[in-house]
Each structure stands twice: as C-alpha cells, then as structure tokens.
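Weekly modeling sync, notes
Attendees: S.R. (lead), two postdocs, one rotation student

Agenda item 3: backlog of single-chain predictions. S.R. asked that every request posted to the team notebook include the full sequence so nobody has to chase files. The rotation student volunteered to paste the first one in as an example of the format we agreed on. Action items at the bottom.

Example entry:
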Amino acid sequence: MKLIEVKNILNATVFTNQSDEYLADVEVNQACGADLMSDVLAFAKEQSVRLTGLVNPQSIRTALMLDMPCVVFVRAKISVDCKNVHGQTKHICYDQC
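Predicted structure, as returned to the notebook:
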C-alpha cells in the first residue's frame, strides 16, 4: 500500500511538507501498533507504519531506527515536537483519532 492511500483512508493530516507525489511513491508493507519502544524495536519490520499514542520525539526516533516511513499518532494526539524532529529527516508524521 502506498502512503498516500494510508493518508486518505485515515483522513489524516500530514505534519511534514512532503508532497502527495512523494507519498504516492512510498510503499508500506504492514503496520506496527505499540507504545513500548522495546516492543517496536523487537517486533516491527522495515517499511511499516508505526501506530502509537505516545507523542514525543522518541516515538519518531525509534521509527527512524527501523526505517519506518511514517508514524501515525492515534487517540487524537498531536505532536508539537514532530516538526522539529522531522526537520532533519524524511520522516512523515500523521495525526489521526
């Protein structure tokens, strides 16, 4: 599935300045839903979408370590730090309830 499809299905807001063309090029294979960083590191696979309720820079950094192309923040939480962390990466962050 392409990230643009994930964005459209979730009706998500993208926090970064990535274009829809970029999102249409990025393929994801699965999703990983976990709040414990150790669970994500132990069980998640590359090219997965990270689903989390934790709104902190560590959520993004953990996903970066595993080459996850995006993080979906659940429970209608919004990350103030997302844009700051993303400024140095090509990571895509979504907000979704």
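Discussion: group reviewed the output briefly. The chain has a mean pLDDT of 77.
Action items: rotation student to repeat for the remaining queue; S.R. to check formatting next week.
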